[in-house]
Every structure is written in C-alpha cells, then in structure tokens.
Amino acid sequence: MKLAFISDIHLGFAYGTEREQESFDNFKQAFELALKDNPDLILLGGDIFHDRIPRQEILGKAIELFTELNSKLKKVILIKKVDREKNVTEKKELIPAVIGIWGTHERRHMNSTNPVQLLEKAGLMHVLHAESALVEVGYEKVGIHGLSGVPEDYSRDALLAWKPEPFENSHNIMLLHQNLKALIPVDSGNWIQFSDLPEKFDLFLFGHFHWKFEDEHPKSKAPILIPGSLVVTQLNQREASAEKGFFLIDLPHEKDLKTITFKPINTRKAHYILLEVRDRRPAEIQFNIVEAIKKALQVKTELKPMIKVKLKGTLAQGFNPGDVNLSQIYRDFSPLVILDIDKSDLSSADAVQKTNLLQDLKEKKISVDQLGLDLIKKNLPNQIETQKLEQLFNLLAEEELEKAEEAL
C-alpha cells in the first residue's frame, strides 16, 4: 500500500496579489507528482484552505482541482467507523481515496460548515474529526485516525480525552494538526507533547508546521512526519530555507519495513536577509539593502523570487526609522522581485537609551537618586565636578535649600 501525505496547501493564499495562483499551482504540482507513484490513498493534514470562509472563486478552483485528483484515483472501501464517543458503525461503502482533516485556518464555530466539510459534501474527500476509519485497499487494511484542528489551549486535553484505539490486523495512522511543544521555543502551555501520542500506532502525520520535520515516538519509535506547507505564507528565516513538498510512504505487509521518501516540488525561491544595524545613517542602510538584494538576485530562477529584508538594530544618533526611505528601492526592484523590507526592529539611539534607562530602573539596576543625578548632570548648562554635583543633589533631595545655595 502506498500513501501520499500532503499538508498545509493554503488554497487562496495571497488572493488579489501577483501570488494568487501560487497555492493552486503548487497543489496541482504536488498531486501530479504523487500520482506518478500510483498511491492508493492521499492523506491531507489540514489547512487545505487559507481562510475559514473562502471566496467563491477560490472554492471553484479547489473543486476543479479535487475533481481532477479524484478522477485519477480509485475509490476505497470504508469498512468501519468509530466516532469520538466510541460508537462503532460497521459498513461497506466506497469513499474517495482522499482522506484528511481540517486545520486551524478552516476551523469554524460549532454547528457551522467549514470549507473542508464542503469538499466532503461534494464527494471529493472523506473528513475525520476525533474519528477513526478502517479502510480496505486491495488486500490491505489501514486505520486512519484523525483529529482536526482545535484551539491550541485545549489541544492536548482533546487528544488525551479522545484516546483512539488502533484497529487489529491493520496499519494504523494518526493525523493531527496542532502545535507540538518540542518544536515551539516559547512557553507553550497545554500543547501536545510527543509522549502524549499513543504507542500502538505505526505512523503519526502532522500538519500545521511549515517546514519539513522528522522524528520518532519516544517509546514505540514509530515515525513522526511533518511535510511542511506547499506555499510560503510567512517569509521568515526558517520557512525561507525550507524545501517544499510531501511524503510518499510505502507500507508493505510487514509493518516494520515501511519506506518513507520526501518528494520536493518546484516552488518560488525565497530569501530571508537579516541586516544588523549599529549606529548607521539612513543612506548607509539603504545602500546595504540594495547590495543585499542584488546579491540574492544573482541566483537566476524561473519564477520571480521573494525577498524579505529584516532590519534590526540602532540608527546613528539623531536619526529615527522614518528617515530610512524605502520607496525608491521598492520602485527599482518591484519588476524583479516580490519585496518586503521590515524595519519594525529598527530603533533610534535616543529611544534605545530611554528604553534601557527605564529597564534599568525597573530591574533596580540604578536608583531613582542616581537617575535624578544623571538628569541634572546632562541638563545643567555649566559643567560642575562630580563630587560637588552629588553634594548639591543630596542637599536638594533633603530640602536643605540654604545649604545647597551655599554649595553653589
């Protein structure tokens, strides 16, 4: 049995821009590449759409693509289904060979229909949410256990409460679309951990993350696979360097002999450039931006590349971020590149000094008295030796005005 696992397609991303066709082209490229290996099933890991209520034009294109995909796949037999309350329905019916879950982008409120469910209603895929489906493909059986995207705050509780049981005498695969505590370097609260995943499963397939990642269950050693997204939606350092594609999984009768291959697709080249700035004038920064863009463009590509330039640091004294004029750079390079220049982490020297001063006060690194002394020293028109200035400040602080006048 062969499976293709594709995730985070984000159909409709960047609609109305020059990138509006990209998500559709990348998905078509991915499934055409997958079909060359004659898969029995195509599994989808959520965020099929970019918006929970996509435009009709986007839904129309999606229906066309899924119709084409299904026309080249044989339907499979659904033998048994188990819902979240553990109710078992025995059945034998043909369903699409495209099985998946919805993600966090498509999730809507209870009793509403999301766009992935619309694809199911149109007979173009089979959708699971806290459900398990036993499917027969030829002489093999595979259990697909899917938990669609839920709010991150209770994703771990939802997984632990669900507790799906593997089907006997079959391969068992879990589909999830949530954050993983091990992959996000922040205080991740109640997010899913690898150790929360049940042991008696053969594969764990995750959506949600936009870069390729492979690991294994800490106890059972079953593979944990994340293919990443098919399209760049947030041009950061990690996603810019990530290869886009999907996993092809060969499941022979002997469960321990599975073969896993990552299949890359041809996508728009993305560059993330971090420019560290320290006491530089706006003209110098603008020159450095231009040089960095020219260097990135030396690599010729078929599709117009994307470049994000991130400015980080402090300007020279007397300048602020508004003095860094980017309009000419955008005009010069917009025919050649999809450009984004981010100066949100660029600060003026004065602002940094004030921020540092307040932070020092907050952390008790300097006293209020020391702050007052520093302010007087900075603002007095005439220079006074430090020892005499400290004496003057202390007398004023203690309201000894006559003695302070004598000291002056």
Summarize this structure briefly.
The protein has 408 residues and is α/β, with parallel strands linked by helices. 28% of the residues lie in helices and 27% in strands.
Domain unit count: 3
Largest sheet: 8 strands, mixed
**Average pLDDT metric:** 88
Q: Please compute the radius of gyration using only Cα atoms.
A: 29 Å
Kindly report the CATH topology of the largest domain. Purple Acid Phosphatase, chain A, domain 2
- Strand percentage: 25-35%
| Coarse morphology | elongated
| N-C termini distance | 92 Å
What is the share of helical residues? Answer: 25-40%
* Poorly predicted tracts of residues: none
Number of strands: 17
Order of helices and strands: EHEHEEEHEEEHEEEEHEEEHEHEHHHH
The total of helices stands at 11
CATH architecture annotation name of the largest domain:
4-Layer Sandwich
Spatial sequence of strands, sheet with the most strands: 4-3-7-8-9-10-12-11
Structural class: alpha/beta
The CATH homologous superfamily of the largest domain corresponds to Metallo-dependent phosphatases
- CATH C-level class of the largest domain is Alpha Beta
Oligomer: single chain
